[in-house]
Amino acid sequence: MIRAASKAGLSAMLVVPLTGCGGNWQSALDVYGSAAISLKHLIILIVAVCSVVWMLVMIALIAALWRNRDARSSSPEPGRERRMTMAVIGAVVATVLIISTFTVMSFIATRALTVASQDDLTVRVRGLQWWWGLEYVGPDPSHRFETANEIHIPVGRNVRLQLEGLDVIHSFWVPSLAGKQDLVPGRPNELTIRVERAGVYRGQCAEFCGMQHAHMALLVIAEPQEDFDKWATAQRQVATPPTDEEAAAGLRTFLTKPCAACHTVRGTAAAGTTGPDLTHVGSRRTIASGMFETTRGSLAAWIADPQTIKPGNNMPLVPLTPDELRAVSAYLASLK
Amino acid sequence: MAGVLIGLAAALAGCQREERQLRLDPPVADALDKIALMPNRIGGAPPEVYFKLGKPYEANAYNLSQGKRLYTWFGCKSCHGDGQGGSGPAFLDGWWYYGPELVSIFASIRDGRPHGMPMFGDKMTTDQIWQLAGYVQTIGSYEGQTAAPSRNDEKQARPAENRAPAKLLFDEGPSPVHLDQGPTP
Amino acid sequence: MNRPATAPDTHDTDIARTRLTSALAKTWKTPPGFWGALTTVDHKIIGRRYIFTAFVFLALGGVLAALMRLQLAQPEARLIGPDRYNQIFTMHGANMMFLFAVPVMEAVAVYLVPLMVGTRNIAFPRLNAFSYWIYLAGGALLWTAFALDMGPDVGWFAYVPLSGPQYGAGKRADIWAQMITFTELSALAIAVELVVTIFKQRAPGMTLDRIPVFVWAMLVTSFLVIMAMPAVMIASTGLILDRLVGTHFYNPAEGGDVLLWQHLFWFFGHPEVYIIFLPAAGMVSTMIEPFARRPAFGYLGLVMALIATGILAFGLWVHHMFVAGLPRLGDSFFTASSMAIAVPAGIQMFCWLATLWDGRPVFKTPLLFIMGFIVTFVIGGLTGVMVASVPFDTQVHDTYFVVAHFHYVLIGGAVFPLLGAVHYWFPKLTGRMMSETLGRWSFWLIIVGFNATFFPMHILGLEGMPRRIYTYQPDLPWHGLNVFVSLSSIVLTIGFLLFFINVFRSARFGEVAPDNPWDAPTLEWATTSPPPSYNFPRIPVVGSLHPLWDDRDTLPVADGLRTDRRELIVTTLASAGPQAREASPRNSIWPLLAAVATTIMLIWSIFSPWAVVWGSIPIAVALIGWFWPKGTPEDES
Predict the structure, then answer these.
(1) Which other chains touch chain C, taking contact as 3+ CB pairs less than 8 Å apart?
(2) Which listed site, A174, B86, C159, C183, has its alpha carbon 20 to 30 Å from C397?
(3) Which residue has the higher pLDDT, C445 or B14?
(4) Chain segment C430-453, per-residue pLDDT in tens
């Protein structure tokens, strides 16, 4: 019964598009990060030159096959052979020139992309099967906090992402902002992103990481500095205790059922570290790594049957009564 | 051709070992929870559905490897170490305080045991407890099982489960793993 | 076995042609029946078998591709679950690379190279038989595992730690790794045979500059195989050891390294692309001659380009790891080397264009496939230049752009020439011509279907669609193009179906082929279609690069070989002067027994390290039987 309900809920939610962003929102051609903008220019330039090359080859092919032939013998004649040799050599020289230009261009573009300064905002990004753990670290230790799957960054600032793979290799890729970078276990990597326009940008894991590789998305939300500061301050707070009765019942269920063994809600006894930090889950735009928009209904559907929605993920199907399910989803939705 | 046939036979034997049951239907999970224990809570019988499913938690590689992840995630290491014990008993020395049957291990995890073993029945689902119990059994196994997990990507102080660490450590002789229990299992 | 004592008339000097052919047929024949099929060492029978098996794997891999397209035609489709889908795309990749593309190219060479260089059998024919059985066992292992829901699910590249002991539960990754051992073993065996055949068994007079370009391509390919395959065998053996006995090759906590896998894998994986592409390029250079009705332009350039590609192939593996976090300066070096490989590819392309320009094209199906090859492979090559650029690659790496790129390279660059080659050499293989009408239909369906299927994937990749996802969410803007791609793949499938129908129909009812239906210049056309078991009644003597064009009516032949035992001419490396008469092995069951013993050992060793110890005993027995001294002279100078 739960399964049927969650399936219905699932299909209802899948057609709800995520709002709050225009354009393609996960595309290397619809770019807003400074790195991705310069990459797009490079991509367009190289693609344009290559298209011209392809057309020239096609013209040569068509001409070679269907040109008018004088009635001459098939045996190679020295003068013609020499002219053809010159033509082939000319084409090879042109190839060398083009690829040399491309090489130099890539080298320059690569150097321009790798800038990072020490005092930038630093976010630790941890790749896990199949979600993103985030830790905001700063010079002041009291400013650190954890969240998941949704990176807020201030507009117009370099943000340093420290990428760590905690289980298998993942790859951090928000195409509208920057090129991808792998999260390799045992080898920390870094990536700097900078966005000039406020907005929501979607990214997703780009290195095959197992069963739910397809559902390992994250959002980058770029906002003005003051909004970002407000958000960060709110995130640092512990969860507000539930005010209404239903949410309070939800908290009790959350603590007595297996939920608390894997999830942390700061300010309560729940301190599990296996799953994402849920302290402010209600304030995040999506749940389950970009599966659904966060609503009470989607939370309930997810908790009711995570293995049907995202088969193979590490959240078990916890048997709950309908009342418990309602209460827990109300509680989680209230965690703003 | 004979090679192909042998490959086929080996694969058939391994078929069930490889299946991945990702979602246990809640009624089945409920049924799996109803083990019949002896009055002293040692030994007993798993529910009938457990056999109907083909003993999925003893020789299924996926369940065993999930069990190994649960062993880390639910903090078993903090008392039992990597199986060599700590504040809790070792699994590697062949001594099972409550018997070596899977149901006993299941009951120990679900309901807890005196002298410090907490109950995990409210922290884990039935499916997870079975997976973990199956895995714990492989730690103390005297026979290397092909379905058992191999080493983790971490520092390693003992042979992996599929190498039957209990036997290897025992063969290493004369210093016992668990000092107060002596060398003989 | 007793042989008749040497009598004067056992040499082929001055005996009547009918007596010569019947004596040779008796000496070289494969006995009919089941036993004969198991014991044969005839390179033509083994080559045909190899080609047939590889095409079976192509068809099976195609079915997997169709399943993936079915799943991806709809967002959040529930047709195939993630577990099965991951197995499917892993199988598709591993099957196409290891069981189809590499073996089929080597198989064509096993069939053609001895004919093209004018000898009676491949070097080490028993090893050749062994190689086929091992290949078959490796393919059967992989597909049996898949059928039993224990197919590998870690990608054809099997990156650790996902494929490692902690995250790759069960035996799935081991099956992948051991399948590698099987196929690499068989590929290495063929590579060695081809190198020796090409170096030492060329017809007298076939100096280095008279070797057909396809044979040159296979020579370079064989060296690539010999140098690249050990890297992946080491990698996969390390993986099996990590998984089975807990070694730490890839465990960072104990001093191993996750990226070591990627280095070893791609040090093989990139040359692998050229192992597939170079034979295809050789086929094009060889096929273009009869259809342009002139010699291929720039023989020296074509051969040098093959060799240059082969050398450069080992210097660019890191471009598969541009986003793994290696030092950026080093990455830029590999950008340069990856771009540089466009030069030899360009040289070949320009030479083919010049050949067509100056020739008088005959628009038969093989030429159509060459045209299709040029159109699509140039796209694949240019997108290759794109992904060689580090910054460009950071956006498209592991997206559908790359999927499109390598399908253009591998299907456009290798499968199109291969299909052309099947049409071209079909009369030699079967003695019958393929249908030209069906050939044209299948060509147009395949090229239209192919481009409509794979071109949109470039756009999908740039729009942010990663590879290897079993589904995607409906709010992402990829649905329309995915539906288009899935529909187009139906056209592609129909094209391939027509091709297979054409093959089966023509093999039974096709027009009977003359010896040289295309008026081709190379030696394989100098014998009958299909060739007799001894290939040539008398070994031809080669006086030019195009013996059948330059000595059109009277191809000179060498004699002096014995007819009562299997003998072939060994010639010198560079100038192909006759050096010795070498005995060629008779049929034998030992290669099959050795392959069975090896198969048992390799599969068993997935489960227990002791297999290597106990499993070696039957292998040793089989090898002793195989190499038991016969007491007959091996060669006579």
Answers:
(1) A, B
(2) C183
(3) C445
(4) 999 999 999 999 999 999 999 999
Give the homologous superfamily in CATH for domain A121-235.
Answer: Cupredoxins -  blue copper proteins (2.60.40.420)
The answer to whether residue B60 neighbours chain A at the CB level (below 8 Å) is no
Q: Would you list the domain boundaries of chain A?
A: 28-70+80-114, 121-235, 245-333
* Helix H or strand E encompassing A287: strand A286-287
Cα Rg of chain B (Å, integer): 17
Report the residue of chain C nearest B2, measured CA to CA.
Answer: C596
DSSP string, A27-79: -TTS--BHHHHHHHHHHHHHHHHHHHHHHHHHHHHHHHHHS---S--SS--HH
What CA–CA distance (Å, rounded) separates C312 from C318?
Answer: 13
Q: Which of A185, A261, A312 sits opposite B124 (nearest CB)?
A: A261
Q: Which regions in chain C score pLDDT beneath 70?
A: 1-14, 631-637
Chain A interface disruption, residue of C259, C356, C475, most A CBs within 10 A: C475
Give A175-188 pLDDT, tens digit per residue: 999 999 999 998 99
Q: How far apart are CA C150 and CA C87, in angstroms?
A: 8
Residues C88 and C187: beta-carbon distance below 8 Å? no
- Domains of chain C, each with CATH number or no CATH: 42-587 (1.20.210.10)
Instruction: Report CA torsion sign: C244, C250, C251, C255.
Output: positive
Q: Cβ–Cβ of C398/A180 closer than 8 Å?
A: yes
Q: Which residue of A has its CA nearest to B72?
A: A274
pTM of the model: 0.93
Where are chain B's structural domains? Answer: 23-150+160-169
Interface test with A, best of C358, C360, C401, C447 (most A CBs within 10 A): C358
CATH class of the region B23-150+160-169: mainly alpha
Label residue A132 by pLDDT band (50, 70, 90): very high
B153 contacts C164? CB cut-off 8 A: yes
Concatenated DSSP letters for A106-167?
HHHHHHHH----TTSEEEEEEEETTEEEEEEE-SSGGG-EEEESEEEEETTS-EEEEEEESS
